[in-house]
């Protein structure tokens, strides 16, 4: 840990980004995909999320992804946004680990981190999230239960840039997953 970002009701711990591989750090990159500006593109194989911008650029974030098969399929939208979200492990998660609580309130040690963007399809919550993490070593890895993990400082950045209704496209190795 390096320091804190002032936030309410908790300060957000930050990490020493020099300890994160350069390709997993937030940066602006060239982007030539067909998606319109404002779209979030999650590339499972590349372990990156992109916020498509104008003029052939995007903000690229390093992310942790779900284990094979533990991701949604097809395009989706952000159906809800939450600051310091509470966490309700799914029945599948609790069956796999009975020690998990039925609910964990938002906070620094909550697995959803400082912010969460809720993935919806057809107006229905998929139970998948784009969210912060208190486990920065998981960025670039395939070990979540299906959600897409961002560094807390990166989900703060994405959260302020997107609105409810933003399109989220899931790709695997450059191809749409759906």
Which key phrases capture this entry?
single chain, 178 residues, mainly beta, L,D-transpeptidase catalytic domain-like, ten-stranded mixed β-sheet, two-stranded antiparallel sheet, 2 helices, globular
Topology:
Layout: E1 3-5, E2 12-14, E3 27-30, E4 40-43, E5 48-52, E6 57-62, E7 65-66, E8 76-83, H1 91-96, E9 115-121, E10 124-133, E11 142-144, E12 148-151, H2 152-161, E13 167-172, E14 175-176
Parallel strand pairs: 4-13, 7-11, 10-12
Antiparallel strand pairs: 1-2, 3-6, 4-5, 5-6, 8-9, 8-13, 9-10, 13-14
What does this structure look like?
By secondary structure, the protein is mainly beta. It has a single domain, classed as L,D-transpeptidase catalytic domain-like, CATH 2.40.440. The chain is 9% helix and 38% strand. It has helices at residues 91-96, 152-161, and strands at residues 3-5, 12-14, 27-30, 40-43, 48-52, 57-62, 65-66, 76-83, 115-121, 124-133, 142-144, 148-151, 167-172, 175-176. The strands form three sheets. Strands 3, 4, 5, 6, 8, 9, 10, 12, 13 and 14 form a ten-stranded mixed sheet that branches. It has a two-stranded antiparallel ribbon with strand order 1-2. Strands 7-11 form a two-stranded parallel sheet. β5 (48-52) and β6 (57-62) form a beta hairpin. The chain is globular. The termini are far apart.
């Amino acid at each position: 840990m390096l320091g804190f970002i002032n936030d309410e009701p908790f300060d957000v711990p930050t990490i020493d980004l020099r300890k994160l591989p350069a390709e997993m750090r937030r940066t602006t990159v060239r982007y030539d995909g067909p998606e319109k500006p404002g779209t979030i593109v999650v590339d499972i194989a590349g372990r990156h999320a992109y916020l498509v911008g104008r003029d052939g650029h995007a903000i690229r974030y390093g992310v942790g992804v779900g284990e094979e098969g533990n991701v949604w399929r097809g395009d989706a939208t952000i159906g809800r946004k939450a600051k310091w979200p509470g966490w309700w492990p799914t029945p599948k998660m609790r069956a796999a680990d009975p020690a998990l609580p039925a609910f964990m309130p938002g906070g620094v040690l909550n697995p959803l981190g400082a912010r969460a963007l809720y993935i919806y399809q057809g107006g229905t919550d998929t139970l998948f999230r784009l969210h912060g993490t208190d486990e920065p070593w998981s960025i670039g890895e395939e070990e979540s239960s299906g959600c897409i993990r961002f560094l807390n400082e990166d989900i703060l950045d994405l959260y302020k840039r997107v609105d409810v209704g933003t399109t989220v496209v899931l790709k695997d190795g450059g191809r749409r997953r759906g």
